[in-house]
Amino acid sequence: MLRWMCGHIRIDKIRNEDIRRNVGVAPVDDKMREARLRWFGHVQRRSIDAPVRRCERLAVVGTRRGRRRPKKYWGEVIRQDMVRLQISEDVALDRKACRTSIRVVG
After folding, report:
1. At what angle do helices 28-45 and 95-102 cross, to 10 degrees?
2. What is the pLDDT of residues 20-77, one digit of tens each?
3. Residues 6 or more apart from 95 whose CB is under 8 A from it?
4. N or C: which end of the chain has fewer CB within 10 A?
5. 2 vs 89: CA distance, rounded Å
């Protein structure tokens, strides 16, 4: 879509990163990280008795995992995102601080 907006076609051989930089769009992985952390903040601000918070405390026992590499859990990905942005879980409780710390410009 961005390529079309700029008037380029694939034959022009212009890299997607160059088009995104010219248009001023943030990278997709940064926007996904922002959405994950925004949802995390939303969940953390809910009460402990909310169904979404009760799911955090569930422990599944007696299931076997596959032989392949184990998939990452949502909590692991959130922790990695928070380390990358150098923020703590306490920031999620303050909505304004959370928004300013995870916002991706673009």
Report:
1. 170
2. 888 888 888 999 999 999 999 999 999 988 988 888 777 777 777 778 888 888 889 9
3. 41, 45
4. N
5. 35
Residue 91 near residue 98 (C-beta atoms within 8 A): yes
For residue 95, give the nearest of 43, 36, 53, 50 by alpha carbon: 43
Task: Determine the residue type at 38.
Answer: R
Rounded to whole angstroms, the Cα distance separating 57 from 44 reads 13
**On the CB side of 77, how many CA atoms lie within 13 Å of its CA?**
13
Helices 28-45 and 74-85: angle between axes, nearest 10 degrees: 110
CA 50 to chain centre: 22
> What's the CA gap between 81 and 91, in Å, rounded?
13
d(CA 91, CA 32): 19
